[in-house]
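Running log. JK asked me to keep both predictions on one page so they can be read side by side. First protein, sequence followed by its tokens:
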Amino acid sequence: LEESDGRDIGKSLAITLATTLTAKNGVEEWLLQFPALIELDKEFKMFRPFLETVGYKLMGEVGWGVKARVSFGAVTSMLDYATDVYITSMFWRDKEYAYFEASLACLTVSIAIQ
């Protein structure tokens, strides 16, 4: 690897951490992207714990990463709810009352649990 490769690999860590839920998962995903890092991980037992510690620190300091993950989860959940409501209304419109009732029951239970 060249020096520029090291810079590119290093820059990708922050992006990978910002798009994963935990530092441990982020480090795992990041290591798998670069064969050279897998070799370092095998050779040096301290490498992964070191990276995970750095990852936890970065994730705690970078507020936009947490906000991005929470926002993505919230938007996904709302879109899922909207599509469920739409499908339920389609069952009503098409006079598929058994499916409508089943879908409505699922929505009601889901909302009650949340």
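And the second, directly underneath as requested:
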Amino acid sequence: SLDDGSMLNDAAVDFFLRLMHRCLAPRDDVYIFSTHFFTRLSGLGAADGESGWRNVSRWTRRVDLFKHRLLVVPINGESHWWVAVVQLQGKTAASPSSMWYLDSFPGSPDRYQEALRYLCGYLRKEWAERAP
């Protein structure tokens, strides 16, 4: 456990997620976003994921997200890390078929609805811009 007043930083979260992916679940159909992704997607005045897409459009330009089955999105809000896991339907749709939230300290449902809104908007725009 962390000492009082200590916090997990983004580099530690990135490292841990990649280590878990490599060692515990080495699957090609899982894509793990950077800890900075959601902050950037939802920042700089973006009202939703479609407008926020511009903030992160270069981050996945060489990645076909829709070939992945699961997208893992670490999110930091109110000095607390949690993870959104998006299950995609495959190459035929831009909408997630399911989304789960892994959160050791569950918050208000609004927290998850906001993440859903941004991530769904992002995926719609990503599909419109990059789908084959």
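Observation for JK regarding the second prediction: The longest helix spans residues 109-130.
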